[in-house]
Amino acid sequence: MNDKTLYIIRHGETDMNAELRLQGQVDSRLNENGIREAQETAGILSGAGTEFSKAYSSPLQRAMNTARIIAPGMEIIPVPEIMELKFGDYEGLPYSEIGKELWDFIHNPENIDPPATVERIQSLVARTGVFLDRLINSGDSGNILIVTHGIALRSILRNLYGDESRENVWAMPIKNCVVYKVNISGGKVTEIRRADELSIENKNDKSKVF
């Protein structure tokens, strides 16, 4: 199987991020700061000599636009399986108004059931896992860009780590345009790490958690 390196990136900032509102599958756009974040990320990756052979993204605009900025001129392949967790009736609400039941689920998603209309975390882990399995076993090689969302990225990491570091996966901050690198050789994952040297959060820490 072909060796490959995955660059898994959360999208840039949106107005809903800046306003601390729950997005889920709302099809929001990057704001000016989010565009700048994506541009800075593109510059860091380019400066590190990173050239992509393929680019995948959640079909939501904030992810697709981030991918287009990072990989200009490339075909960005939309992947519904890596869309954000669906928050149903709670989408668009300020964090301050979503209530204890949903917060409890967010802080312990594998052990607490979500409120009605909210997607179960097991569903998100399963659908992101389908994409990962397909990609790992594909003929894709080289550097592969994947742009997704905060909780979806955590779910991808949950698939990659398995039961190891389960609690850390859900607790860690996933800020806008954070970059994770995953090396795959012979159809097996050989390294997973947060690429701090490629992540703008270490250079300009203005993005919002979650």
Features:
6 strands, 18% strand, Rossmann fold, 210 residues, disordered C terminus, globular, alpha/beta, 6-stranded mixed sheet
Would you kindly provide a written description of the structure presented here, covering whatever features stand out?
- The termini are far apart.
- A 6-stranded mixed beta sheet has the order 3-2-4-1-5-6.
- The C terminus is likely disordered.
- With 210 residues, it is an alpha/beta fold.
- It is 34% helix and 18% strand.
- The chain has a single domain, classed as 3-Layer(aba) Sandwich (Rossmann fold), CATH 3.40.50.1240.
- It is built from 7 helices and 6 strands, in the order βααβαβααβααββ.
**Largest beta-sheet details:** 6 strands, mixed
Backbone structural class = alpha/beta
Order of helices and strands: EHHEHEHHEHHEE
The N- and C-terminal alpha carbons lie at a distance of: 35 Å
Highest CATH level, the class:
Alpha Beta
As residue ranges, the low-confidence spans are 204-210
Query: Helicity level, as a percent range?
Result: 25-40%
By CATH, the architecture is named 3-Layer(aba) Sandwich
List the helices and strands and how they pair.
Elements: E1 4-10, H1 15-18, H2 32-47, E2 52-57, H3 61-70, E3 76-78, H4 100-107, H5 121-136, E4 142-148, H6 150-161, H7 166-171, E5 179-185, E6 188-194
Helix pairs in contact: 2-3, 5-6
